[in-house]
Structures are given as structure tokens and as C-alpha cells.
Design brief:
Elements (H helix, E strand, L loop, with lengths): L12 H17 L2 H8 L8 H14 L17 H13 L8 H13 L2 H13 L4 E4 L15 E5 L2 E8 L10 E7 L10 E7 L5 E6 L8 E12 L3 E2 L5 H16 L2 H18 L4 H25 L8 H26 L6 E3 L5 E3 L1 H10 L8 H12 L2
Parallel strand pairs: 1-4
Antiparallel strand pairs: 2-3, 3-7, 4-5, 5-8, 6-7, 9-10
Helix pairs in contact: 1-4, 2-3, 4-8, 5-6, 5-7, 7-10, 8-9, 8-10, 9-10, 10-11, 10-12
The chain binds flavin-adenine dinucleotide.
Flavin-adenine dinucleotide binds next to strand 1 and helix 12.
């Protein structure tokens, strides 16, 4: 077996001091229980208590928002440092924070929020006091998101929102939601959509769990019955929410599926191989996948360095999203296969309950990766449109 093939991009001399600082921080703050929670992560974030604890430690160190500008409490790091930091966290099994605020709505508020929205919402995102969920998809509007029908009507100084959202990750954990609502009709479906920031404690909101194929409760259905949302909580102009959503999705795609999450999956694969000792043929397939992972890391670094994941380049973020999520599934499939019959067994979970093996849960959890943040088919459409121009 040659996991050495899947080595991340080598740091140069000037990065070594930075890495030494990161390693010292991880050695001090990343306790064994947090590492274990990180190792047990199968979905988009670690179990919430550990995710929050890790968020707090990163925040205290000033490292919770590597991609944010310094003026707004971010690290102001170069893309290379962001990459190295993420890789080092992955290599040490750090938990994955519940990061919708840090990864998507925070960056949007920074570029498009009012001064009041910036001063009200950014700091609680950094500190972890506010957790955000994304209310875009509806029962009749997924890939065809512009077909959404949750409506909002102005009444005094508020919008009154009525409708239904679905697949809302973490709606049961979050105290805030950013949502797309219909405020008008235009020639195109994309017109007449408005972007709102909603307090989840508002009267008229109910959250119902949806259990996924891996047995986890990660997402929900959210129902709005006459929910009042202050007009001051609108991001961008009325009926211009689609532009806001497109910008936010670019942030989310480029930040959601980084090679750090792939590196974590790779570590799970290595552990399962060490434990289950699959046959010699497996080594070759693992080596091939390891090469694909190293290539993925190089691609991510190049696109980041060229600024192609933060700007208006839909092709680059679609390329990154499809490549990363499909590789993530491949690594999870290998881990599942490496376990052979052991993958089918039950293991002792929290509070003595029995649960499927980690490799099995990871396998099922990664099925969703090519669906959320736009399916692979939709991203291939985006790339094909660009290429045919
Ligand atoms: C784990 C998970 C978490 C999620 N979290 C959130 C969240 O927090 N907030 C939120 O708003 N949404 C969330 N979603 C929803 C997600 O964005 C949608 O599932 C996704 O956009 C697809 O929409 P859909 O499920 O309605 O499928 P559909 O749009 O009905 O698609 C069904 C199938 O048809 C294909 N298809 C559709 N249109 C085309 C086309 N034009 N060309 C080719 N193929 C096409 C799709 O690729 C797919 O295979 C989450 C989804 C998952 C799985």
C-alpha cells in the first residue's frame, strides 16, 4: 500500500514558520475528544457540540474565517496559507465546523450587506453565537430554483412570508436563515425574487426533521405561516435576490468542498485499510485514487491562486464542485469496499446505541455530495454552456 503518493502540495521554506505556528496551535487546542469527533464526521459538519467547541477555539485564536478580509475579522491569509491551514487541520482530524455563516452568508454580507447588517450579523457569525441555515430549495424548486413559490408581501415595515422550504441543512440547529422568496413576477422566472435574513425564532416558523439514508438528521422541512421579517433584513434590492443568490452560491461552492474534506476521507480510507487488510489488488486502486487526490489539490490551489473561485467564474466553481464531490464519493466507496463484510456490521455508537460502521455511514453520507449545492448534471450543463460560447 502506498498512501505516500497522496501527499499534499509541499510547503516552501517561507511557509514553514506559518505551519509551525499552526501545528503548535493544533497540538495545544485539538484535544483527543475533538480529534475523535473529527474522525467520526461523515456529513458536512461534525457532531454539533464538538463543531461548536472547535469553532470557539478557532475564533479565540482569530482563525475561524481564513477567507474573510482582516477588516471584518478574518485572517487575511494568502490562498496558499488558507490551503495549508485546511490541509493541516484535515491531517490532524480537526472537527468540521457548522460553517454556513462563515462560508456563504458572511462573505455575501461583507460584499452586499448594508452597514447595519454588517455590524449586526458579522461578529455573531465569527463568534459562533449565530448559526445560519440556507432556505433556497422547495418541494417544487430544486435544480429549477427560480421556480420557487414561497411568497413575501410587504406589510408596514415588514415582509410577511408564507410557504415551504425543504432539505434545509441544520434548520434544527440554526437560529438564523437566509432565504429566497417571491415578491413579484417578471418576464423571466429569476425576476421577482428577493433575498431575506430571517430569525428562526419568529412566530409562524415550524421545522420538521428529514432523516437521510445514512440514518442522520442533517436536514429538514421548514414551513412559514405569515412570518414577519423586517424590510431592513433584505440583502440587495427587492426583486434582485437572484443576483445575490448567484454570488452566494459561488462562495458556497468554492468553500464547501475543499480538498480538506477529501483529505479527511482519505484518512478514513487509510485507517480502514490498516484495520481490514484488503487484498493486494486494492493497493493499485488506492494509489490511483491517491494520485487523483493530489491532482485535485493542485487544481484547487491553482484556481484559488488565480482568484477563479471567488469571482464570477461559474465554470471554475462548477469544475471544482463536480471534481471534488465525485472524488469524495470514490474515496468513500473504496473505504467501504476495503472493509468487506466488516462494513455491514454494527458498531457501538453514542450512549451505547448500535450503528452501522463508520465506512458505511460515510459511504451513504457522500451520496448527497453530488446533489447539494447543485447536482453534477446541473454543473455539467453550466460548463457545457460556457464551452459552447
Ligand atoms: C444533503 C443535502 C443537503 C442540502 N441542503 C440544502 C440546504 O441547506 N438548503 C437548500 O436550500 N437546499 C439544500 N439541498 C437541496 C439541494 O440544493 C437540491 O437537492 C438540489 O438542488 C437538487 O434539487 P432537487 O432535489 O429538487 O432535484 P431535481 O432538481 O428534481 O433533480 C432531479 C434529478 O434531475 C436532474 N436534473 C434536473 N434538471 C436537470 C437539467 N436541466 N439537466 C440535467 N439534469 C437535470 C438532477 O441532476 C437530478 O439528478 C440539500 C440537498 C442535499 C442532498
Amino acid at each position: 500500500m502506498s498512501p505516500a503518493i497522496a501527499r499534499p502540495v509541499a510547503p516552501d521554506d517561507s511557509d514553514e514558520r506559518f505551519l509551525a505556528e499552526v501545528r503548535a496551535f493544533l497540538a495545544k487546542e485539538l484535544t483527543e475528544d475533538l480529534r475523535e469527533a473529527g474522525r467520526q464526521t461523515t456529513g458536512v459538519h461534525t457532531e454539533i457540540a464538538a463543531a461548536r467547541a472547535w469553532h470557539t477555539r478557532l475564533y479565540r485564536r482569530g482563525w475561524v474565517a481564513p477567507g474573510w478580509p482582516r477588516a471584518h475579522g478574518g485572517c487575511g491569509w494568502s490562498v496558499r496559507r488558507r490551503f495549508l491551514f485546511e490541509q493541516e487541520c484535515a491531517r490532524n482530524d480537526a472537527p468540521i465546523i457548522f460553517g454556513t455563516g462563515i462560508r456563504s452568508i458572511g462573505p455575501l454580507i461583507i460584499v452586499a450587506g448594508t452597514p447595519e447588517q454588517k455590524s449586526r450579523f458579522l461578529e455573531p457569525i465569527l463568534s459562533g453565537e449565530d448559526l445560519w441555515c440556507q432556505g433556497f430549495s422547495e418541494p417544487g424548486a430544486g435544480s429549477d430554483l427560480a421556480g420557487l413559490s414561497t411568497r413575501a408581501e410587504v406589510n408596514g415595515d415588514s415582509y410577511v412570508v408564507t410557504g415551504r422550504k425543504i432539505w434545509t441543512t441544520g434548520a434544527h440547529l440554526a437560529n438564523r436563515m437566509f432565504a429566497l422568496v417571491r415578491t413579484g413576477r417578471g418576464e423571466k422566472q429569476q425576476e421577482g425574487i428577493t433575498f431575506l435574513l430571517i430569525d428562526m425564532a419568529s412566530a409562524g416558523i415550524s421545522v420538521r426533521p428529514v432523516i437521510t439514508i445514512d440514518g442522520e438528521h442533517e436536514f429538514n422541512e421548514v414551513v412559514f405561516e405569515g412570518v414577519r421579517v423586517p424590510i431592513a433584513n433584505r440583502v440587495g434590492a427587492e426583486n434582485q435576490g437572484w443576483t445575490m443568490a448567484k454570488q452566494l452560491m459561488r462562495f458556497a461552492r468554492s468553500n464547501n468542498t475543499t480538498s480538506g474534506s477529501l483529505r479527511r476521507a482519505w484518512r478514513l480510507l487509510e485507517r480502514e485499510v490498516a484495520r481490514c487488510q484488503p487484498g493486494p489488488d486494492f493497493a493499485l486502486r488506492m494509489a490511483e485514487t491517491g494520485i487523483a487526490l493530489t491532482a485535485m489539490e493542485a487544481l484547487e490551489l491553482r484556481l484559488l491562486a488565480a482568484g477563479r473561485l471567488d469571482g464570477e467564474d461559474d465554470t471554475a466553481s462548477s469544475l471544482m464542485k463536480t471534481s471534488a464531490t465525485e472524488l469524495h464519493q470514490k474515496i468513500a466507496e473504496l473505504a467501504f469496499e476495503a472493509c468487506g463484510p466488516l462494513a455491514q456490521g454494527l458498531e457501538c455508537g453514542p450512549n451505547g446505541t448500535m450503528q452501522p460502521s463508520l465506512a458505511t455511514r460515510k459511504y451513504f453520507a457522500t451520496r448527497a455530495a453530488t446533489i447539494y449545492s447543485g447536482t453534477s448534471e446541473i454543473h455539467r450543463n453550466i460548463m457545457a454552456r460556457q464551452l459552447s460560447r
